[in-house]
């Protein structure tokens, strides 16, 4: 999982889900798990 300052590019990809957990923002992608990232 990457830690990024901006998730804008990742959330535009197909099958991406933006999730908030424990005050952090995550982008998850079941179709392409390499696109996982966290912000915060």
From TrEMBL:
One GO cellular component, as annotated: ribonucleoprotein complex
Xref: InterPro entries: Ribosomal_bL36, Ribosomal_bL36_sp, Ribosomal_L36_bact
Alphabetical UniProt keywords: Ribonucleoprotein, Ribosomal protein
Highest rank taxon of the organism: Bacteria
MF terms (GO), sorted A to Z: structural constituent of ribosome
Keyword NADP: no
GO term, biological process aspect, one: translation
Family: Belongs to the bacterial ribosomal protein bL36 family.
Cross-referenced HAMAP family: Ribosomal_bL36 (MF_00251)
Protein name: Large ribosomal subunit protein bL36
Keyword Chloroplast assigned: no
């Amino acid at each position: 999982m990457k830690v990024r300052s901006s998730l804008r590019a990742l959330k535009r990809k197909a099958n991406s889900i933006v999730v908030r957990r424990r005050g952090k923002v995550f982008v998850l992608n079941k179709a392409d798990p390499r696109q996982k990232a966290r912000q915060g």
